[in-house]
UniProtKB/TrEMBL annotation, chain A:
Its EC number is 6.3.5.-. Belongs to the GatC family. Transmembrane segments: none annotated. Allows the formation of correctly charged Gln-tRNA(Gln) through the transamidation of misacylated Glu-tRNA(Gln) in the mitochondria. The reaction takes place in the presence of glutamine and ATP through an activated gamma-phospho-Glu-tRNA(Gln). It catalyses: L-glutamyl-tRNA(Gln) + L-glutamine + ATP + H2O = L-glutaminyl-tRNA(Gln) + L-glutamate + ADP + phosphate + H(+). This is Glutamyl-tRNA(Gln) amidotransferase subunit C, mitochondrial. GO terms for cellular component: glutamyl-tRNA(Gln) amidotransferase complex; mitochondrion. The keyword Aminoacyl-tRNA synthetase does not apply. It comes from Myodes glareolus (Bank vole). InterPro entries: Asp/Glu-ADT_sf_sub_c, GatC. The gene is GATC.
Length: 190, 516
């Protein structure tokens, strides 16, 4: 993944910092530009849940939080004056992302992450084209239309606990959370 | 999962999705006068919106319906949109699945050049503006047949926008009158398809096949109603429409349902419905959980897709790695509207005829082969192909390729007719015989059954004389200038000649004999 993620932690405890040079992924063949690689800084946290300044870390159970105002038309997660996310919104997010915030503390962490991301609004972007992709200077590689993969059903099916006659098996319908009996049919039902 | 779909809504890994959005609630003010289709092609999703005016009911002001179609069409390619797995119909489950298609961690999408070309050509054929730069996005939702939890689509900036399609329909049931309409195409986008789910209710489980690549064409309809001049109404989406006939029925039903609901003081919910074929009505498809939020985000693994034309093409470009829109435009085959125009100009046929010729698979080619091999007039050929040949095909529900009569055989028959070796009535008989497919040529049938026109004028004159002598009353009527009487005499002579005489010649002889 050629995505740059920067995370900082200001814990006093020692952190292991690894600077990783992320090479261009195999699907992008060439790039002539100087920005060939992205640097990712990994910070390993020690226990303590209250990493105030940090962006949501990958280790947290809440998963990643999308920054507000992506320009996709979805309502911004901008908080109300108090900085609190309304309960209905939390429940909505839980249904959409199949996560379970579980505790007030987890929601607080979400709110802090949003506040952190909101700082982006302070940047004056008048006359600046939005960055849609850090790959924008790369050429999208076009593969020729030849069959080169597939025919590995056996291998793939080994990944599944439960298989019926070369089909993967899934529970019926869509059951969102254990304590919600709401069955949601597929958005693209056959 | 890398089949591509053109969303004209043609979606899918290998599916083209065409999304036609008729009545988005947020469109205000713009009232398309003529029919407007927004086509969003996925793989080509095209969004089309059609408006049909309703008759006024109970003396209230009119209702207008707005319909948008989301068309999902599969791209014809060897491998999938984002992976090198094969595209093939009816293969063993999960046999056409690469690691990427199975969404195994660490796999990445690699775009198929052929799919991009197909999308561009579709856009060009539908008169769209081709975006020189288009972007890929992720559309997130959870379902068992979508192992990644998202599908790669082109929601923000698709490959083609703002096209239109002009089409003709028969007025009412009369096949002879044709009117043209135009539909707007909103956009065409490339999109992945999800897998196939088989629901096993007995064992309470769903079986997943990640091959995809089936169901070449799929349509969803978006329908809303409103009073002309007022803002657009709330729309519903109807899915699960497998044929044009059910599409039409579902749309008609839904329009009526919405009108009835609103006239009774109710409201239309923004929901997804499906069509119950047996009951002929639409039913709500899912719980009222509110609008689905797909949390669109840019696809981080794919840079923007850049297309070039003759002017912008870099000189040192690798031809395999660039797509030249102008080059693709040149490879487009003759589009149907151009073909129809050419037929009307070249052969002097009516527009209705050109439609009929293009509407049947293989018929145009058949027609052109007959034209090539016969010296009969094009109008005669048109007449025989559309009225006789097509009629026989339809009677027995055959395709052109299954026809027992070849183009050459028909051409030969038309030559005989043209040289007046047979009468047109006899020719019909010969055709019937040819249709039996016994391997005889038209000439053979004519001689075997003695259907050839009498060439012996003297014999014909004798026949005419005999008929005159045998029907004095009719002769008197003729002499009295009764117009129908001469036809009766001609008919009698024809019968006597066993349809072997040319009616015009008979008339000429009779008139001479009766000194008319």
């Amino acid at each position: 993944m050629a995505m740059a993620a920067a995370a900082t932690a200001t814990a006093a405890h020692s952190n292991v910092v690894i600077r990783v040079r992320v090479a261009p992924s195999s699907s992008l063949r060439r790039s002539r530009s100087k920005e060939m690689w992205a640097r990712a800084m990994w910070v390993r946290f020690r226990a303590a849940p209250d990493r105030g300044r940090g962006f949501a870390s990958k280790a947290s159970p809440q998963g990643q939080v999308q920054a507000a105002g992506q320009g996709t038309g979805t309502p911004s997660l901008a908080l109300q004056g108090s900085g609190r996310v309304p309960t209905e919104k939390i429940e909505h997010l839980e249904r959409l992302a199949l996560v379970n915030f579980g505790s007030r503390e987890a929601v607080a962490r979400l709110e802090k992450a949003i506040a952190f991301a909101e700082q982006l609004q302070a940047v004056d972007t008048d006359g600046v084209e939005p960055l849609e992709s850090v790959l924008e200077n790369r050429c999208l590689y076009l593969r020729s239309d030849n069959v080169a993969e597939g025919n590995c059903a056996e291998e793939l099916l080994q990944n599944s606990n439960h298989v019926v006659e070369e089909y993967f098996v899934a529970p019926p319908g869509n059951i969102s959370l254990p304590d919600m009996v709401n069955r949601i049919p597929s958005p693209t039902a056959e | 999962m890398a089949t591509s779909v053109l969303r004209l809504g043609i979606p899918g890994r290998r599916w083209a999705l065409a999304w036609i959005d008729g009545g988005s609630r947020h469109r205000s003010g713009t009232q398309p006068g003529p029919t407007s289709n927004r086509a969003r092609g996925q793989s080509s999703v095209t969004q089309l919106s059609l408006r049909t005016a309703q008759k006024p009911r109970k003396g209230e002001h009119k209702w207008a319906a707005v319909v948008g179609l989301e068309i999902h069409a599969q791209i014809c390619s060897n491998s999938k949109l984002f992976s090198g797995a094969q595209v093939c119909f009816a293969a063993p489950p999960n046999s056409l699945v690469s690691f990427f298609d199975a969404s195994l961690p660490g796999t990445l999408p690699v775009l198929n050049r052929r799919c991009v070309e197909a999308a561009v050509m579709t856009g060009l054929a539908l008169n769209c503006h081709i975006n020189r730069k288009s972007l890929f996005d992720r559309k997130h939702y959870f379902y068992a047949d979508l192992p990644a939890g998202y599908q790669i689509t082109q929601q923000r900036l698709p490959i083609a926008t703002n096209g239109h399609l002009t089409y003709s329909i028969y007025i009412r049931k009369k096949q002879s009158q044709v009117t043209t309409k135009t539909v707007r195409i909103k956009q065409i986008q490339l999109e992945q398809d999800s897998g196939k789910s088989l629901h096993d209710d007995l064992r309470s489980q769903t079986l997943i096949d990640l091959n995809r690549a089936e169901g070449q064409l799929r349509v969803d309809a978006n329908i809303s109603v409103h009073h002309p001049g007022e803002p657009l109404g709330v729309r519903t989406e109807v899915k699960n429409l497998n044929s044009l006939r059910f599409l039409a029925k579902a749309i008609d039903y839904e329009i009526q349902r919405q009108i009835t609901e609103l006239e009774n003081g109710g409201e239309v919910l923004n929901e997804t419905r499906s069509f119950d074929y047996k009951l002929g009505c639409t039913v709500p498809m899912r719980d009222k959980e509110g609008k689905q939020d797909y949390r669109f985000m840019p696809e981080p693994n794919l840079p923007p897709l850049v297309l070039y034309d003759a002017t912008s093409l870099p000189s040192d470009a690798d031809s395999q790695q660039v797509i030249n829109i102008d080059q693709l435009r040149d490879t487009l085959p003759e589009l149907p509207s151009a073909t129809r125009e050419r037929l009307v100009q070249q052969y002097g046929m009516l527009p209705e005829h050109s439609f009929a010729l293009l509407n049947e698979v293989g018929l145009l080619e058949f027609f052109q082969n007959v034209i090539k091999e016969t010296r009969a007039e094009p109008k005669k050929v048109t007449n025989w192909v559309l009225n006789t040949f097509l009629y026989y095909l339809k009677q027995q529900n055959l395709a052109v390729s299954e026809s027992p009569v070849t183009a050459g055989a028909l051409a030969e028959l038309l030559d005989l007719l043209d040289s007046k070796a047979v009468s047109s009535a006899a020719a019909k008989q010969v055709f019937e015989e040819l249709w039996k497919g016994q391997g005889k040529t038209a000439a053979q049938i004519v001689s075997e059954q003695q259907l050839g026109l009498m060439q012996d004028r003297e014999a014909l004159e004798q026949l005419c004389q005999a008929t005159i002598d045998g029907h004095p009353q009719t002769v008197m009527d003729v002499k009295k200038r009764n117009p129908k009487a001469i036809n009766k005499l001609i008919g009698l002579v024809r019968k006597a000649s066993l349809s072997r005489a040319d009616p015009t010649l008979i008339k000429e002889i009779l008139e001479k004999k009766l000194s008319l």
